């Protein structure tokens, strides 16, 4: 598709640089469009998992410089990965109502601009992490991008109903980056924490996909709720939620966590399972989508509260 074709559609903003002067307002809109390419909400969630991991690895509060450098590099790497995802998926995004407002669909940013921006973010992320943190953290961050782009976006997303299960591993890498930033090595504890995010991703994403299953079907993307019954999807969500609860408790053991984390993991996991059971019960009724969105909303609170508990547990005991 030619780069300016989308921008020529009625109701779509024209791309700056197509012959019209750029006002201050248009430049602000342009900056916002590039920021949108990075999917800031996803970056925020990834950083929420990185910092507490660093606190566990340091058994206390790491140096401010190291924290800032790690979070900045992680944000740049994640932003670049998300921008490449939008570049590759712009044809799908144009079909789905949920994503029809994205900059590459509206024409606010051209595909070439988006790709250059994304690659630049990845290069800067790698150099910044290597220079200010360590090579292992830099390699892990950029490898997550490669996995997200080549394994999930370019391969699994359009071919397999297991797309988010396998591809979601990229979203679990930030905990490895956080650990490596502090210790310049890995071990059993960060791998188990990686597993926590890995098994959290399917119930989190599938719950949202229940609401947008018609979008995925229209775009011919085999996301589980679009290719399986809601009941079958709910069973898979419950299975992964139970696995998540077990993984969160396993982390408490291998990482030597204290009572604050133990209590939080038990209670938060139990509530998550309750949401999953309720979704299964409602999966054949008219409130299935409502139950799914309730689980989705809680899944965000869950990961935020669980990792907050990780940080508080360590800070209380070691600071």
What tags apply to this protein structure?
319 residues; single chain; 15 helices; Tetracycline Repressor, domain 2; Four Helix Bundle (Hemerythrin (Met), subunit A); 2 domains; disordered N terminus; mainly alpha
Named at the architecture level, the CATH assignment of the largest domain is: Up-down Bundle
Low-confidence stretches: 1-21
| CATH-assigned homologous superfamily of the largest domain | UbiA prenyltransferase
* Tally of DSSP helical segments: 15
Radius of gyration: 20 Å
State the CATH class of the largest domain: Mainly Alpha
- What number of structural domains do the residues give? 2
- Helix % is over 70%
**Sheet with the most strands, sense and barrel status:** none
Termini gap = 56 Å
- H/E order of the elements? HHHHHHHHHHHHHHH
Please state the overall shape, judged from the principal axes of the Cα atoms.
Answer: globular
3D architecture notes:
By secondary structure, this protein is mainly α. The protein folds into two domains: 24-142 and 170-179, Tetracycline Repressor, domain 2 (Orthogonal Bundle); 187-319, Four Helix Bundle (Hemerythrin (Met), subunit A) (Up-down Bundle), CATH 1.20.120.1780. It contains 15 helices and no strands. The protein starts with 23 loop residues before the first helix and ends with a helix.
SSE layout and pairings?
Blueprint: H1 24-37, H2 40-58, H3 64-88, H4 90-95, H5 103-106, H6 111-132, H7 135-156, H8 163-167, H9 173-183, H10 188-211, H11 213-218, H12 224-227, H13 230-254, H14 259-282, H15 288-318
